[in-house]
Amino acid sequence: MGLFSFIKNAGAKVFGIGKTDAEEAAEVAAKELKMEQLAAQKLEETINDLQLQVENLNVFIDDETATVSGAANDQATKEKVVLVVGNSSGIAFVDDQMTVENVEPEAQFHTVVSGDTLGKIAKKYYGNAMKYPVIFEANKPMLTDPDKIYPGQVLRIPALD
């Protein structure tokens, strides 16, 4: 007879014990979907806990992209919601589908790098390091201390009035 060659993980398992690769892949996909749904729910709770008022808020996560929808009262709230979601572990992209009731100019965004301080960031955008409280206030309630920023974090940089 001799030795026959087969694809190791193809087909059904012997005597119904175990699962096929397709069945295992479907289970993994279902678990990932459940985790994404839980993460989206947790982000919605966090946004509400931060008292960022968004009517009909909905967060949907698909892989590393989060889609956010709802109606924010103002541009600052909309941008803060995007930052809460985007600065979360596992999220690489935010698809912003929110609307704004009171339209205002959009803020700039800055990704923190090693060595950044709010003062250095203020100097870069405003020409004056002492304007760092503007950036700190624009990122409340996500920031609780002007000295606690981290590399990779994205911050709102509003226009000066």
From TrEMBL:
Ordered alphabetically, the record's keywords are: Coiled coil
For this protein, the record's Gene3D superfamilies field holds: LysM domain
Q: Start and end of every BON domain?
A: 34-102
Keyword Transmembrane helix present in the record's keywords: the answer is no
What SUPFAM superfamilies would the database entry show? LysM domain
Question: Where would I find the LysM domain in this sequence?
Answer: 108-157
- Entries under InterPro entries matching the protein: Bact_Kbp (IPR052196), BON_dom (IPR007055), LysM (IPR018392), LysM_dom_sf (IPR036779)
Q: Does the keyword Coiled coil apply?
A: yes
Q: Name one Pfam family in it.
A: LysM
Residues in coiled coil: 26-60
PANTHER family in the record: POTASSIUM BINDING PROTEIN KBP (PTHR34700:SF8)
Descriptive protein name: Peptidoglycan-binding protein LysM
- The protein's organism comes out as Hyunsoonleella rubra
**Gene coding for it:** lysM
